[in-house]
Amino acid sequence: MLGTIIQQTVNALTIGSIYALIALGYTMVYGVLRMINFAHGEMFMLGAYAAFLALTLVVGDIGAVGAIALTLVFFGAIVAVGFVGVGIERLAYRPLRNSTRLAPMLSSLGVSLSLVTGVQILAGPQPVGFPSFFPTTRFDVFGGTVTLVQIGILIAAFILMFGLYTLVNRSRMGIIVRAVSESRPTAQLLGINVNLAISMVFFSGPLLGAAGGILYASYYGIMSPTMGAVIGLKAFTAAILGGIGSIPGAMLGAYILAFVEVGGTALLPVVSGGVLGTEYRDVLSFAILILVLLIRPAGILGEPVSEESMVYKREF
Amino acid sequence: MSAVDTPAAAEPRTRRIIPLLVFALAVALLVATPFLPNYHIRVINGLLIYILLGIGLNIVIGYAGLLDLGFVAFYAVGAYTYALLASPQFDLHLPFLLILLIAAFLGMLTGILLGIPVLKLRGDYLAIVTLGFGEIIRIVMNNVDWLTGGPQGIARLDKASVFGIEFARPVEIYFLLLVIVFTVAVLVWRMERSILGKAWAAIREDQDAARGIGINTTNAKLAAFATSASIGSIAGVIFAASQRFVSPESFTLQESVLIVLMIVVGGIGNILGIVAGATILILLPEVLREFAEWRILFLGLLMIVLIIIRPAGIVPRSFGPDKLIRGLFGK
């Protein structure tokens, strides 16, 4: 029993860390642009493909790659996706900066569609096996199984999230990003380089999302061009649940969602006497999301979006 | 609007010729459709169903300014209403028109049920709650096997028949759709220009000011949700009757998104725009079928470009059906 609980907790923490990495991108973009970036799930997908490309093309033989080379591949891939994110913002969202609020969101749908199809054309639509970035060692903890992959994911996610936290709260760049996210017109009046802050957000968000993609692909050993859609939606749900625009909120929301999912899978059939199967865990997640939004429209840790920040732009 | 219109005579000639040409082309297509092969008629039928869905969703998005990302739920309600009441599933075989009425009513009810809790939410939060609602409906339909047949769906639905006339072949469905789409379009257009439509416009432009001048925003918003939902539900009935098969696969989030895109690319708040948007997003992939995935890539890029160069849509709000009629008949 204890073993099962430990194993399920580690499962939830693992998947929660991946959701958190992606949710951070949604929340930061929303913070500075008040825009839902529907193409963010595709950064997650691109991360896995970029790493795979680097492994097969640059490094060559996958079997004989050392830890240092793997780390280099990991960072190379996520930085590359970060630059892709900056490029997309420059081409598809910046021209719409002064348009309606809906316009960049729809443009991001176009970006999402283009990226998925682009990868399908280049790499084929079928799922591809993904090499694990970690040794497949298993540990037995009080009867439950914990894998080294899971521990690796937890550590990597923790380092990345800590890095982001430090960047946002302790660096000059972080002050700029926070100022823009507080009020873009005011930041602009104070002479802050708004474009730089937005580029920074569109660099770090996709970077974290791509890291999530690589970790996810090596956890499940598979990647596909459409993998971003479902996970993107989940991470997005997590960001809203925690309070979109809030960085700690995105992390909290991600772990809550992961625990609801893992707990729901295990408990729903038992609690409902077999009426509701494990398929209903997504219904449970969405139901919790809707409930939270109805009670606290800004999410658990989110600050209510002030009318002032909404007013300077028309919805449609 | 009409107070600031420039007289038609003062406009450059091309301004009248282009709409005229497009209109003539559309009429020619509608007249030619029954003579095309069945496959082509099916594509046009699909287009008409999407136009119907677009007109329905546009009430909430374009008129009242509320972003709804779960519209497909109402489409599903209609489709499953027909599937349950006119199939061997429960051996019920109600007449088509009766089911159309029941579905419109059920759609309205679901619309209000969704509307009540989300009335206080604005903008993005509304979008997300409606998105969650749409997903919940789809997952439930996918799993309540005893009712909906689960992922296998419900097959062998009855042929639609109105007053003894059967509507089963693509051509027959085409005529049925043509009548329904035209009727709904005219009704909705009149609605937009009614006092209720003006209340929606006021809410869209500034909700607080609308409340300030005495508009009951709660009722007006619920009316928008209810009307829009019942149109979505009607579209679902016709969809089910033409496919004679329903499954949850047809009601994914992507469908909702596609309908929103049609509206925005075409021209938000404008029925003519929706027709244009649907034509591009539905017909273009069919026309470019031989290019396989490349056409989808092209569509994605086209979407970005169109939103950047024509933010108000291909046919902007200011060029509504009234302008077209005036352009066609001189005054």
Automatic annotation (TrEMBL), chain A:
<keyword id="KW-0472">Membrane</keyword>
<feature type="transmembrane region" description="Helical">
    <location>
        <begin position="283"/>
        <end position="302"/>
    </location>
</feature>
<keyword id="KW-0029">Amino-acid transport</keyword>
<feature type="transmembrane region" description="Helical">
    <location>
        <begin position="68"/>
        <end position="88"/>
    </location>
</feature>
<dbReference type="GO" id="GO:0015190">
    <property type="term" value="F:L-leucine transmembrane transporter activity"/>
</dbReference>
<feature type="transmembrane region" description="Helical">
    <location>
        <begin position="142"/>
        <end position="168"/>
    </location>
</feature>
<keyword id="KW-1003">Cell membrane</keyword>
<feature type="transmembrane region" description="Helical">
    <location>
        <begin position="189"/>
        <end position="216"/>
    </location>
</feature>
<feature type="transmembrane region" description="Helical">
    <location>
        <begin position="252"/>
        <end position="271"/>
    </location>
</feature>
<keyword id="KW-1133">Transmembrane helix</keyword>
<keyword id="KW-0813">Transport</keyword>
<dbReference type="InterPro" id="IPR001851">
    <property type="entry name" value="ABC_transp_permease"/>
</dbReference>
<dbReference type="GO" id="GO:0042941">
    <property type="term" value="P:D-alanine transmembrane transport"/>
</dbReference>
<comment type="similarity">
    <text>Belongs to the binding-protein-dependent transport system permease family. LivHM subfamily.</text>
</comment>
<dbReference type="GO" id="GO:0005304">
    <property type="term" value="F:L-valine transmembrane transporter activity"/>
</dbReference>
<feature type="transmembrane region" description="Helical">
    <location>
        <begin position="222"/>
        <end position="245"/>
    </location>
</feature>
<dbReference type="InterPro" id="IPR052157">
    <property type="entry name" value="BCAA_transport_permease"/>
</dbReference>
<dbReference type="Pfam" id="PF02653">
    <property type="entry name" value="BPD_transp_2"/>
</dbReference>
<dbReference type="GO" id="GO:0005886">
    <property type="term" value="C:plasma membrane"/>
</dbReference>
<dbReference type="GO" id="GO:0015808">
    <property type="term" value="P:L-alanine transport"/>
</dbReference>
<feature type="transmembrane region" description="Helical">
    <location>
        <begin position="12"/>
        <end position="32"/>
    </location>
</feature>
<feature type="transmembrane region" description="Helical">
    <location>
        <begin position="44"/>
        <end position="62"/>
    </location>
</feature>
TrEMBL record, chain B:
<dbReference type="GO" id="GO:0015658">
    <property type="term" value="F:branched-chain amino acid transmembrane transporter activity"/>
</dbReference>
<keyword id="KW-0812">Transmembrane</keyword>
<feature type="transmembrane region" description="Helical">
    <location>
        <begin position="17"/>
        <end position="36"/>
    </location>
</feature>
<keyword id="KW-1003">Cell membrane</keyword>
<keyword id="KW-1133">Transmembrane helix</keyword>
<dbReference type="InterPro" id="IPR043428">
    <property type="entry name" value="LivM-like"/>
</dbReference>
<feature type="transmembrane region" description="Helical">
    <location>
        <begin position="296"/>
        <end position="314"/>
    </location>
</feature>
<protein>
    <submittedName>
        <fullName>Amino acid/amide ABC transporter membrane protein 2 (HAAT family)</fullName>
    </submittedName>
</protein>
<dbReference type="InterPro" id="IPR001851">
    <property type="entry name" value="ABC_transp_permease"/>
</dbReference>
<feature type="transmembrane region" description="Helical">
    <location>
        <begin position="257"/>
        <end position="284"/>
    </location>
</feature>
<dbReference type="Pfam" id="PF02653">
    <property type="entry name" value="BPD_transp_2"/>
</dbReference>
<feature type="transmembrane region" description="Helical">
    <location>
        <begin position="48"/>
        <end position="76"/>
    </location>
</feature>
<feature type="transmembrane region" description="Helical">
    <location>
        <begin position="123"/>
        <end position="141"/>
    </location>
</feature>
<dbReference type="GO" id="GO:0005886">
    <property type="term" value="C:plasma membrane"/>
</dbReference>
<feature type="transmembrane region" description="Helical">
    <location>
        <begin position="173"/>
        <end position="189"/>
    </location>
</feature>
<feature type="transmembrane region" description="Helical">
    <location>
        <begin position="222"/>
        <end position="245"/>
    </location>
</feature>
<feature type="transmembrane region" description="Helical">
    <location>
        <begin position="96"/>
        <end position="116"/>
    </location>
</feature>
<keyword id="KW-0472">Membrane</keyword>
